[in-house]
Specification:
Keywords: Signal, Transport. It is a single chain. The strands form four sheets. Strands 1, 2, 3, 18, 19, 20 and 23 form a seven-stranded antiparallel beta sheet that branches. The chain folds into two domains: 197 residues, Beta Barrel (conserved putative lor/sdh protein from methanococcus maripaludis s2 fold); 134 residues, RNA polymerase II/Efflux pump adaptor protein, barrel-sandwich hybrid domain (OB fold (Dihydrolipoamide Acetyltransferase, E2P), Beta Barrel), CATH 2.40.50.100. It is 22% helix and 38% strand. The chain is α+β, with helices and mostly antiparallel strands. It has five helices and 23 strands. α3 runs antiparallel to α4.
Length: 371
């Protein structure tokens, strides 16, 4: 290297070292600076717990309850179907094929109130022209035979002194028999079947129109007492039938329809055991025959645990069931728990939670989303 250039090079290097690291201009930050943190806002801490200030707790509506271990009934949710009470309802069917005619009040409509034995409609039997001709011919023969028998009876009565009494009585019986036979055949030609209400209640279903041609055993009306309904539930475990303590149907608005256990079948249906319940209470107005329902059955056997609302149960990233426990004024910790269902609104925590701990009952879903 040229000795004349060496002092100049050393001078330039010394000036660069004195200036320090180069700084980018405005808008040219490379992102090396750490992000600013807000320690006063809701945040997920490194140990998995959540820091939630009091204002934020009030904003999202966090509410807690004190856990208390107790003996709770086991619950089971079954699929059920609302059916009519066989003693408080029935079906109206035609005994023979014919044409439908309205009754004195016309054909009943859906929801109409009827009384037991009330006339609903008529069915005029249908017959072919050949059958009707045979019936007319038979009726004519019976009338002719009766007229001859009556004339013979009149002559025998005139000779009552010389004719045995038994012959007169036999002929009287024959005349009466011919008259009844003629009346029966005539009634078959002009008579009609009366369809009567089998029970008091309301018309639940109607499949009838004036002039309609119906077949024998065809369903025309269903009468149901809305205050006496039954529910059939299917249990896939036969042991449930012997462990039923109480049952109910959850309906809208938090209301419940109480059920009384009637009994269990002794034969399977679709690989399940049917259980029969009698429904009663104000919620019956929200049920209809044929409606599928969820039946919550509470058993006699008990389970030891803590009852909490079902909304308190959450899932962690590992898909484990957890609840949030308030350990400090602004600190919440997740607890992995084991649960069993109690009813449609509550669950029983059987392990993972200690007594007297404060469990988040309301607002757990929003708390679980804090990151």
């Amino acid at each position: 290297m040229n000795r004349r250039l060496l002092p100049a090079t050393l001078l330039a290097a010394t000036l660069l070292m004195a200036q320090g690291p180069a700084q980018g201009g405005e808008g040219h930050d490379h992102g090396d600076a750490p992000a600013a943190s807000n320690s006063n806002g809701p945040q997920r801490l490194p140990d998995g717990s959540v820091f939630l200030p009091k204002p934020a707790q009030r904003q999202i509506g966090v509410r807690t309850l004190v856990s208390t271990e107790q003996q709770l009934p086991r619950s089971l949710e079954l699929n059920g179907l609302v059916v009519m009470d066989p003693n408080a309802g029935g079906k109206v069917q035609a005994m023979a094929a014919g044409r439908l005619e309205p009754g004195p009040r016309g054909l009943p409509s859906l929801g109409q109130t009827v009384r037991k034995g009330e006339l609903l409609a008529y069915v005029t039997p249908s017959a072919s022209s050949l059958e009707r001709a045979n019936q007319i011919a038979q009726l004519a023969e019976l009338h002719a035979a009766r007229q001859l028998a009556e004339k013979r009876l009149a002559r025998l009565r005139e000779l009552a002194d010389t004719v045995p009494r038994k012959d007169i009585e036999a002929l009287e019986s024959e005349v009466a028999s011919l008259g009844e036979r003629a009346q029966a055949v005539g009634g078959g030609l002009s008579g009609r079947e009366a369809l009567l209400a089998p029970a008091s209640g309301v018309i639940a279903s109607a499949h009838a129109v004036a002039g309609q041609v119906v077949d024998a055993r065809e369903l025309l009306f269903e009468v149901v007492d809305p205050q006496q309904l039954r529910v059939e539930a299917l249990a896939y475990d036969a042991a449930v039938a012997g462990d039923v303590h109480s049952a109910y149907i959850p309906v809208g608005g938090g209301a419940k329809v109480a059920l009384t256990f009637v009994g269990a079948a002794r034969s399977l249906r679709d690989q399940a055991l049917p259980l029969s319940f009698k429904a009663h209470g104000e919620g019956l107005t929200q049920l209809a025959v044929g409606q599928p329902v969820k039946v919550v059955v509470q058993s006699r056997s008990k389970v030891s645990g803590v009852a909490v609302p079902a909304t308190a149960l959450m899932k962690n990233p590992a898909n484990q069931s957890i609840v949030w426990v308030k350990t400090a004024a602004e600190r919440f910790e997740p607890r992995v728990v084991m649960v069993e269902p109690l009813d449609g609104a509550s669950i029983a925590i059987t392990s993972g939670l200690k007594s007297s701990e404060r469990v988040v009952a309301i607002g757990a879903a929003l708390l679980n989303q804090i990151r």
